[in-house]
Design brief:
Layout: E1 46-52, E2 58-59, H1 62-67, E3 75-81, E4 84-89, E5 95-96, E6 103-104, H2 107-112, E7 120-126, E8 131-135, H3 137-149
Antiparallel strand pairs: 1-7, 2-6, 3-4, 3-5, 4-8, 7-8
């Protein structure tokens, strides 16, 4: 019995090549994001998610609410701070998850955060604090755009 091997496909990296993963555009290398040599350790008690705000002000990420052990009976406090929305488990809170496990953001909080229906938001859950911070698009613009406009490597 003979064993045959399949030759690996290796992209040609010869100068002037315009195909494959090592292609250059107009003689310039493809842009890459600068990654620190020793990045700081990830926080194990923080979860990230992106969700869409529906026409009733609901956002949903069942994985996140399950990790927080939030149920339809969990009382919540929702407040705006510096353009972000903080959703916290609070036994005296006036809000609750919907039966489907969605967080319904009240209209006044949505207005304060400049949120509208179909906006995509970044949800950041801090498991130890039993808190979800909602980052609306305008807050993400303020975080990301300076790096892009500053000529960084993004």
């Amino acid at each position: 019995m003979t064993i045959s091997f399949i030759r690996p496909i290796v992209p040609d990296t010869a100068p002037g090549n315009t195909r494959g993963a090592s292609a250059r555009i107009a003689g310039q290398p493809l842009p890459l994001i600068a990654v620190p040599v020793s990045p700081p350790p990830r926080l194990g008690n923080v979860l990230y998610s992106v969700a869409t705000l529906d026409d009733r002000g609901r956002v949903a990420d069942r994985h996140m609410t399950a990790a927080l052990n939030w149920t339809a009976t969990t009382r919540l406090n929702i407040r705006e701070h510096d353009g972000l929305l903080a959703v916290t488990a609070d036994p005296h809170g006036v809000f609750k998850l919907t039966k489907q496990g969605h967080v319904r953001l009240p209209a006044d909080a949505r207005r304060a955060a400049h949120l509208k229906s179909a906006d995509r938001v970044l949800l950041v859950a801090h498991l130890d604090r039993q808190t979800v911070t909602v980052f609306p698009p305008i807050a993400l613009d303020q975080l990301v755009l300076p790096a892009l406009q500053g000529g960084g490597d993004l």
